[in-house]
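#lab-general

N.A. 3:47 PM
ok so I finally got the sequence cleaned up, no stray characters, all 328 residues accounted for. can someone with queue access submit it? mine expired

B.Y. 3:52 PM
send it over

N.A. 3:53 PM
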Amino acid sequence: MDAVVALSVVVIIAFVFLGILFTFIPVGLWISSLAAGVNVGIFNLIGMRLRRVPPSRIVIPLIKSHKAGMRLTPSQLEAHYLAGGNVDKVVNALIAAERAAIPLKFERAAAIDLAGRDVLQAVQMSVNPRVIETPRVSAVASNGIELRVVARVTVRANIDRLVGGAGEETVIARVGEGIVSSIGSAASHKDVLENPDVVSKTVLAKGLDSGTAFEILSIDIADVDVGRNIGAQLQTDQAEADKRIAQAKAEERRAMAVAQEQEMRARVEEMRAKVVEAEAEVPLAMAAALREGNLGVMDYYNLKNVVADTQMRDNIARVSSDKDGPVK
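B.Y. 4:20 PM
back already:
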């Protein structure tokens, strides 16, 4: 009885040990690698466990690359995984590049992946170019007519410039700038409407893909709409501004004329006041002349007669003008 219990305990311990062993040591992956002809030692798999690298993330891509005819080492894939890269995507990209006869080395693919770009998508984009549609670009021709253009840019990934090259936003911005420049140099908007491929050829000839991660294959004008007459609107705004300036200057001249008129009136009133003051001194001067004998009595009466005669003539002339009406 004791022997049976001891044997059961030994069997249980053996099963536990084997369970822990098979859990820590990926025997299944080791057998799969041997069956695929990939030389990955059992101690190498144990080392991956100790370095906290999931063996499946290394062994399965390694088997895939071996079947595709590439000679990659477990150390290369493990180093890329520890650097934070996507090993499976890099291997898939290498296989796709190999099938498409695109020269791509593992170091280059790993650098592209670590740079944050999708290396598999880049390889696929090198084989199958992508079409980027620009937003509606507004440009004005030389005759002042606005044109709104939508362009489709066919690009292919440039693997050599994926690291450090500009992205889609730069390509779209450069194409938009080229469209504005090309339409702005056109003499009339009708020239662009009659032959829109002139714009696309002009923009394509500028080498807009320089310094980007893409190679521009073609630029096609998809849609052209006629917008506002910007030139006429600018002329209208300029005329309105000139009108306001003229009105301001006229108002300034009117204000100066009013000020001058008021100044003249003030001067006239001042002269009238001096005349009244002088007339008030006449009786005093006459009285002094009578006292001093410089003026006789008859002279005074003659002066009064002249004044009365003058007033009578003025009254007769005023009555005559009222009867005859105003002189036409």
